[in-house]
Design a protein that fits this description.
374 residues, alpha/beta, Aspartate Aminotransferase, domain 2, 2 domains, three-stranded antiparallel β-sheet, 13 helices, 12 strands, 39% helix, PyrdxlP-dep_Trfase_small, pyridoxal phosphate, DegT/StrS_aminotransferase, transaminase activity
Length: 374
């Protein structure tokens, strides 16, 4: 048995005890406070700040509302440079604020925005950069920050995948003007639905908190056309339960990642993508690339996995830039996005989550290895 296989027996987090969840629900109900910054909301903001090593966390009902609010808080107008290789919410947030996305190609090694292509895409209309820490792999934050300073641009990180990711020398969330997290049910840390904005200072947090509550400053004063982005008490309580075991869950994901790599390494036509430059990755996804040497196309392998009960995803396919609301933009042209186009045609994300069992992982691996012999 390989060392990777042995690792799978070490830690397998369990669900929170049912009595704990019932007790939290009873406490919420007895308090009579279901939303609007209740005690669980306040406890979760404080706990997340401590865990992530930041001071100013604002909880949201979901990450998309967080992105929209971040753009409003920074008063962004004009064009925003962003990636086509992401979930549609990244670009949709720009359209909601009547901003123009300017798509830039990705670095094929990291699958994040290529800083040099960012520089080449800047125009007099460019107001901001919205990079994505794709699959939780940190962007080249130093290069992006340098470009932003040079051209006077705002930087909003879509950090939907990056919960718990740590750099070796500083805090990932200390970069950019704002970072936006998602706590959707598919994420490493989730509150069923939810998200957060991490602000650099108290003044910006205060503005963000006002905007997520319709723009209210107090009971009789509204200062902006805000939105209802508040996280409720039920989601906040779930987050506190999740946070209790988050390190064990990330460790378990790491074991599964290692197991996949051990068993799939050397399969002809299957490229195991790198883990990025994180000092501690969160293993939020396990993407593979299906190259031309593999006997099946990416879509044929995807269908075979599905036929065998494996819920794999072609993530991210299609590119955002191919959808009807974006494909007429000059920057959406396939010739402008060769690396993103290639990777979107080859990528499959394999199942990875803490409760995944060894025999289930072996079934995923067996489908791929048997297909390689077709």
């Amino acid at each position: 048995m390989s060392s990777a296989a042995k690792l799978l027996t070490v830690t397998r987090p369990s669900l929170p005890p049912f009595d704990d969840m019932v007790g939290l629900l009873r406490e919420i109900w007895d308090s009579g406070i279901l939303t609007n910054g209740g005690p669980f909301h306040e406890r979760l903001e404080a706990a997340l700040g401590e865990y992530l090593g930041v001071q100013h966390v604002s909880l949201f009902s979901n990450g998309t509302i967080g992105l929209i609010t971040a753009l409003q808080a920074l008063e962004v107008e004009g064009e925003v440079i962003t990636t086509p290789f992401s979930f549609v919410a990244t670009a949709h947030a720009l359209l909601w604020k009547r901003l123009t996305p300017r798509f830039v190609d990705i670095d094929p090694r990291t699958m994040n925005l290529d800083p040099e292509r960012i520089r080449a895409a800047i125009t007099p209309s460019t107001a901001a950069i919205m990079p994505v820490h794709c699959y939780g792999r940190p962007c080249d934050v130093d290069a992006i920050e340098s470009i932003a300073r040079e051209y006077g641009l705002k930087v909003i990180y879509d950090a939907a995948h990056a919960f718990g990711v740590r750099l070796s020398d500083d805090n990932l969330f200390a970069h950019g003007d704002l970072s936006v997290l998602s706590f959707h049910a598919t994420k490493v840390f989730n509150t069923f639905e939810g998200g957060a904005i991490i602000s650099p200072d108290a003044a910006m947090k205060r503005r963000v908190d006002q905007l997520k509550n319709f723009g209210f400053v107090d009971d009789v004063t509204v200062v902006a056309a805000g939105i209802n982005g508040k996280m409720n008490e039920f989601s906040s309580a779930l987050g506190l339960l999740q946070l209790r075991d988050i390190d064990a869950m990330i460790a378990r994901r790491g074991e599964i990642d290692a197991y996949y790599r051990d068993r799939l390494n050397g399969v002809p036509g299957i490229e195991l993508t790198g883990a990025g430059n994180a000092a501690r990755p969160n293993h939020s996804y396990f993407p593979i690339l299906v190259g031309p040497e593999f006997p099946l196309t990416r879509d044929e392998l995807y269908q075979r996995l599905r036929a065998n009960g494996v819920f794999a995803r072609r993530y991210f396919y299609p590119l955002i830039s191919t959808f009807g609301m974006y494909n007429e933009l000059p920057s959406a042209a396939q010739s402008n996005l060769p690396e993103a186009t290639r990777i979107a045609s080859q990528v499959i994300c394999l199942p990875i989550y803490p409760m995944l069992e060894e025999h289930e992982i072996d079934r995923v691996i067996a489908v791929i290895t048997e297909a390689s012999l077709s």
